[in-house]
Each structure stands twice: as structure tokens, then as C-alpha cells.
Specification:
Blueprint lengths: L3 E12 L2 E12 L3 E5 L6 H9 L6 E6 L2 E2 L5 H6 L2 E4 L11 H7 L7 H14 L1 H5 L10 H13 L5 E5 L7 H16 L3 E5 L3 H7 L2 E6 L2 E7 H6 L1 H6 L4
Length: about 240
């Protein structure tokens, strides 16, 4: 039986007087793809930031593999197996593709395992291997997204959180990115996905949460939400 790898309880995050996340609770099963959908400003990115240690919550708990990581900080959270692919890719434009990838492994000393992760990245995204010496900033938008995902893989994570991985990409590249997400999942990586392409995200996910103004307003198996009239009308434009 699958067990939960991540459990978030009553998480609250404020930006000054603005209550961005208002006490949300959810969990992610080990080995699954879970998606969060919601309009801009719903609190999705803030939630990922709080889980990864980049943002300090006002209250609530984040538990990863039965360990409370709420106040662990980004560097230590990454070290124990949680990786974030941020919105907008945020690669290092002046560093080469190889240097960008190595930045994902900066916490690690196991050289043989790092080499194995390189091979995993190149199997997933062969174009990155062809462009190893190119500066990241010279890559296309789709290639930069592949690089951002590849960099997160170099940390050898058990959980990868992806924030809007298809944003701004051509439809054919979106397909590639979603194929890569499913391939990673089949290799045993658990994925928490925040995605504006709600239909595509729900298609590949096991479970889903709908966020509105900092609260979870709906949740359930992804295939059921895909058929929900409210979800179809508001988020799928159907």
C-alpha cells in the first residue's frame, strides 16, 4: 500500500498584511503525481515556497517522510530529498548547461551517483547533452525548462515540486515536458505539480486539489475533477 511522503497541515503564510495561504491541509502519496490548480493569486506558488523552505510560514506544519521540515530552510530541505523547479525556470544564463546541472548537485559528494544522475537527465532530455557547453541563456524556452527540471534531478530527490512547468511553451514542447514528468514518475519520483494547464495536469495526475484565495476548496481523484462541471467551467473553459 502506498504511504504519504508529504503532509501539510493548517499551513498559513502572510506577506505583510496579505494572507496568501489561509490554513491549507493536504497530503501527497509516495510514488504519485498530485496536482494543484487554481487561478493566479490562489496561493499555489507560495505553498510550494513554504514546503521547500524558501518562505517561512506563520503557522502550520510540513512533514516529509515523517519528519517535520517546517523550519528547516531551503538548503537542508533540498539535502533530504525535496526539489523545486521554480516558476520561470530561473536557470543561470551565464553558466553552461553542465554548470547549471552541477548547481543542482552542490549539496552532494557522491561522484559516482552524480554521474548516474547526469545519465538520467540525458536519457530524459538528449538535447541537453548536445548543448553541454552552451550558456544556459542561449537555450530556447523549452530547453531552459528541461534544464530546470534536469537541475532539480541532480539533487537526487524523492519529491520534485514543479511550478508552472508548461508556462509560455509551444504546444509540442508542452507535450515533451509532460512526457518527461510521467517518465520521472514511472522511475519512482513523487511529483507535486502546480500547473495553469489544468486539463493536461489532471490527465496525468492521480489526485488533485483546487485552491482559491489561499484555501483548498475542492479535492479528489484527478479523473473525477476532470469530469466535474465546476472545474470544467472555471479552469478548463468547457
Amino acid at each position: 500500500m502506498e504511504t504519504e511522503i508529504l503532509k501539510v497541515e493548517n499551513l498559513k503564510v502572510n506577506y505583510g498584511a496579505i494572507k496568501a495561504v489561509k490554513g491549507i491541509s493536504f497530503y501527497v502519496e509516495k510514488g504519485s503525481i498530485v496536482t494543484m490548480i487554481g487561478s493566479n493569486g490562489a496561493g499555489k506558488s507560495t505553498t510550494l515556497g513554504a514546503i521547500s523552505g524558501l518562505i517561512r510560514p506563520v503557522s502550520g506544519t510540513v512533514v516529509f517522510r515523517e519528519r517535520n521540515i517546517t523550519r528547516l530552510g531551503a538548503a537542508r530541505t533540498s539535502k533530504i530529498g525535496v526539489s523545486l523547479v521554480p516558476e520561470g525556470r530561473r536557470i543561470f544564463p551565464n553558466l553552461s548547461v553542465k554548470e547549471n546541472l552541477l548547481m543542482g548537485a552542490y549539496n552532494r559528494k557522491d561522484k559516482e551517483e552524480i554521474q548516474s544522475n547526469f545519465e538520467t537527465v540525458f536519457a530524459l532530455f538528449p538535447r541537453l547533452e548536445e548543448r553541454l557547453k552552451q550558456p544556459g541563456g542561449t537555450l530556447s524556452g523549452g530547453e531552459q525548462q528541461m534544464l530546470a527540471i534536469g537541475r532539480s534531478l541532480m539533487a537526487n530527490p524523492d519529491l520534485i515540486m514543479m511550478d508552472e512547468p508548461s508556462l509560455g511553451l509551444a504546444p509540442i514542447v508542452v507535450e515533451e515536458v509532460f512526457d518527461a514528468i510521467q517518465t520521472l514518475n514511472r522511475k519512482g519520483v513523487t511529483i507535486l505539480l502546480v500547473e495553469q494547464n489544468a486539463a493536461k495536469a489532471l490527465e496525468i495526475s492521480k489526485y488533485a486539489y483546487v485552491l482559491e484565495t489561499g484555501k483548498v476548496t475542492l479535492e479528489g481523484p484527478a479523473d473525477e475533477l476532470l469530469e466535474s462541471e465546476d472545474v470544467r467551467k472555471v479552469y478548463l473553459g468547457i
